[in-house]
Design a protein that fits this description.
Pfam families: FAD_binding_1, Flavodoxin_1, NAD_binding_1. Its cofactor is FMN; FAD. It is an enzyme of class 1 (oxidoreductase). It is a single chain. The chain has 21 helices and 23 strands. It is of the alpha/beta class and about 675 residues long. The protein folds into 4 domains: about 160 residues, Flavodoxin domain (Rossmann fold, 3-Layer(aba) Sandwich); about 110 residues, Translation factors (Elongation Factor Tu (Ef-tu), domain 3); about 130 residues, NADPH-cytochrome p450 Reductase, Chain A, domain 3 (Up-down Bundle), CATH 1.20.990.10; about 150 residues, Rossmann fold (3-Layer(aba) Sandwich). Strand 1, helix 4 and strand 2 form a beta-alpha-beta unit. Helix 11 packs across helix 12. The longest helix is centred in the first third of the chain and has 39 residues. The N and C termini lie far apart (about 120 Å).
């Protein structure tokens, strides 16, 4: 058997030896099994642990966070607020009013917050009733021809499509508009009406502010009746607290890395040194001025044509769009404020919001210097609003001056009249007020907190991207006038642009800008006739329109009649783009050039007079040619007079009554055949 190869057990082996060998064998097996089980258990333990910890990973947090942040309801609950004031603001005024209303709330034992509708989910309005004594207020400005402001566009779209039940919502609306415009306060009226349609309860009547009159007074008058209505509705009373409450605290930086300090950028730090598209209001492009020439031959005014180089910016524009530029305040005004307040303007500081939950951490980019803030971020040239006077009053050491400031900030008739005459009509800016009130010496940081932001200025683009793809042209007139106090006030943007002289690699000729899309568009079909009416700098978009029609003609397209009605004071003084217009007419692109010189004869002649003179031709183009009408320029007088002239022409040649003629023109507007690009 043994020869078969496997050794058999030795028969002489003792039982003890055999048992020991078995014991040893079991021990090795045990160790192996125990190791295996331990390994499997360890693997399972860590695998299970990993799965349990997944929800705790920061990655998951970052996915959830924005959803929570977009709920203003959760924020109000977390911070103990019961009043939310939403603002639709293009130039900052509606935002300013919203902040004032939110600040007012504490006087009635309530807590308010101002909110940008762009940052929140407005469908949460249906949940506002979850908060005790809750109220939503809307300060809504109307932009352009009855449009919502950029930051309220999503809210407007939601309101149009929403079928939400807002029966638990209490609300009030204050609209900001201008009566010289066709669609006065359209946005405020729409929000007020639509919220009611969705079941919300209006607790106070719609306020309609008119910027053509006295917007500040309209707001104060509405506000002084609004709060008593809130008190009555909620059964609360004013606490009598009228004290000034600071919203921001000052931090002075003595040892700071200057690379971390803002020097005029609108958004991202160093964005002017390291430019990255896309370019917009928060990230403007620094365009080089390649041309800046005076357009008028004589007269006291300075009319100018500027060209901004947008090469390599990826900025696209269409004829009729607007270019927005961020200007800088006059350094002499900034220096005078610094001297009067005895401040080192180069002090680097931050103003930090005392409300840590607020989305708005600073009133302007911080840290920065007082000089930068007063030059690039704050409006120091417009007459300050009453809330600024009220807050500043405490710093007047002279009792008479303090009383005068408080009176102007009050809602009393005498105070309103004094504010109107002494501040608004006299066009006193903050520097003039400090000069005329020698005892008023506020801390500069509080002044910087109170002053509104310096806004971008919009200009109708005076070029076509088909002809000038890498250049945007501006046509503007410098604003300069003497006030009732004998001071010379200068328009911030136009005088700043005037100084932008083309230079070889010079930073002095750089302009922070971006493009804002417009509805002011040429007809889709080039063969459609166009009637353009634009006196003065109102000619700007039509230079672009004519350039584009000339380009279309060169491409072999059939181009319809191109008719221009232009007006200026005197033929040999301020006839803008005379050579260009003559060339376009000679080339047959500009089929009619009608120019009104208002002061070259005894009786003044304006564009509407020329329209009346050519009324048969105008009616034929509109009625038979399906012409598109464009009006650009002054809203207060010219646009209104032109519109009335069209009513007369339509009534006469269309055999219509006055109401029918008005309805006919309104329908042209609805169809996009009568467009306005006007300002007041």
């Amino acid at each position: 058997l043994s020869a078969m190869g496997e050794p058999s057990m030795d028969p002489t082996m003792s039982a003890a030896d055999s048992t020991a060998q078995q014991d040893s064998l079991f021990s090795m097996t045990d160790v192996f099994l125990i190791s295996l089980i331990t390994g499997l258990f360890t693997y399972w333990f860590f695998f299970r642990k990993k799965k349990e910890e997944v929800p705790e990973l920061p990655k998951m947090q970052s996915i959830v966070a924005p959803v929570r942040d977009s709920s203003f309801i959760e924020k109000m609950k977390k911070t103990g607020r019961n009043i939310v004031v939403f603002y639709g603001s293009q130039t900052g005024t509606a935002e300013e009013f919203a902040n004032r209303l939110a600040k007012d709330a504490h006087r009635y034992g309530l807590r308010g917050m101002a909110a940008d509708p762009e940052e929140y989910d407005l469908s949460d309005l249906s949940r506002l009733s979850e908060i005790d004594k809750s109220l939503a207020v809307f300060c809504m400005a109307t932009y352009g021809e009855g449009d919502p402001t950029d930051n309220a566009q999503d809210f407007y779209d939601w309101l149009q499509e929403a079928d939400a039940d807002l029966s638990g919502l209490r609300f009030a609306v204050f609209g900001l508009g201008n009566k010289t415009y066709e669609h006065f306060n359209a946005m405020g009226k729409y929000v007020d009406k639509r919220l009611e349609e969705l079941g919300a309860q209006r607790i106070f009547e719609l306020g309609l502010g008119d910027d053509d009159g006295n917007l500040e007074e309209d707001f104060i008058t509405w506000r002084e009746q609004f709060w008593p209505a809130v008190c009555e509705h909620f059964g609360v009373e004013a606490t009598g607290e009228e004290s000034s409450i600071r919203q921001y605290e000052l931090v002075v930086h003595t040892d700071v890395n200057m690379n971390k300090v803002y020097t005029g950028e609108m958004g991202r730090l160093k964005s002017y040194e390291n430019q990255k598209p896309p370019f917009d209001a928060k990230n403007p492009f620094l365009a080089q001025v390649t041309e800046n020439r005076k357009l008028n031959e004589g007269g006291e005014r300075h009319l100018m044509h500027l060209e901004l180089d947008i090469s390599n910016s990826k900025i696209r524009y269409e004829s009729g769009d607007h270019v927005a530029v961020y200007p800088a305040n006059d350094s002499s005004l900034v220096n005078q404020i610094g001297e009067i307040l005895g401040t080192d303007l180069d002090t680097v500081m931050s103003l930090n919001n005392l409300d840590e939950e607020s989305n708005k951490k600073h009133p302007f980019p911080c840290p920065t210097s007082y000089r930068t803030a007063l030059t690039y971020y704050l409006d120091i040239t417009n007459p300050p609003r009453t809330n600024v006077l009220y807050e500043l009053a405490q710093y007047a050491s002279d009792a008479g001056e303090q009383e005068r400031l408080r009176k102007m900030a009050s809602s009393a008739a005498e105070g309103k009249a004094l504010y109107l005459s002494w501040v608004v009509e006299a066009r006193r800016n903050i520097l003039a007020i400090l000069q005329d009130m020698p005892s008023l010496r506020p801390p500069i940081d509080h002044l910087c907190e109170l002053l509104p932001r310096l806004q971008a200025r919009y200009y109708s683009i005076a070029s076509s991207s088909k002809v000038h793809p890498n250049s945007i042209h501006i046509c503007a007139v410098t604003v300069e006038y003497e006030t009732k106090t004998g001071r010379l006030n200068k328009g911030v943007a136009t005088n700043w642009l005037k100084s932008k002289v083309p230079a070889q690699n010079g930073s002095s000729s750089l302009v922070p800008m971006y493009v804002r899309k417009s509805q002011f568009r040429l007809p889709f079909k080039p063969s459609t006739p166009v009637i353009m009416i634009g006196p003065g700098t109102g000619i700007a978009p039509f230079i672009g329109f004519i350039q584009e029609r000339a380009w279309l003609k060169q491409q072999g397209k059939e181009v319809g009649e191109t008719v221009l009605y232009y007006g200026c004071r005197r033929e040999h003084e301020d006839y803008l783009y005379r050579e260009e217009l003559a060339r376009f007419q000679k080339e047959g692109v500009l089929t009619q050039l009608n120019v009104a010189f208002s002061r070259d004869q005894a009786e003044k002649v304006y564009v509407q007079h020329l329209l009346k003179k050519n009324k048969e031709n105008v009616w034929k183009l509109v009625n038979e040619g399906m012409a598109h009408i464009y009006v650009c320029g002054d809203a207060r007088n010219m646009a209104r007079d032109v519109q009335n002239t069209f009513y007369e022409i339509v009534s006469e040649f269309g055999n219509m009554s006055q109401p029918q003629a008005v309805d006919y023109v309104k329908k042209l507007m609805t169809k996009g055949r009568y467009s306005l690009d006007v300002w007041s």
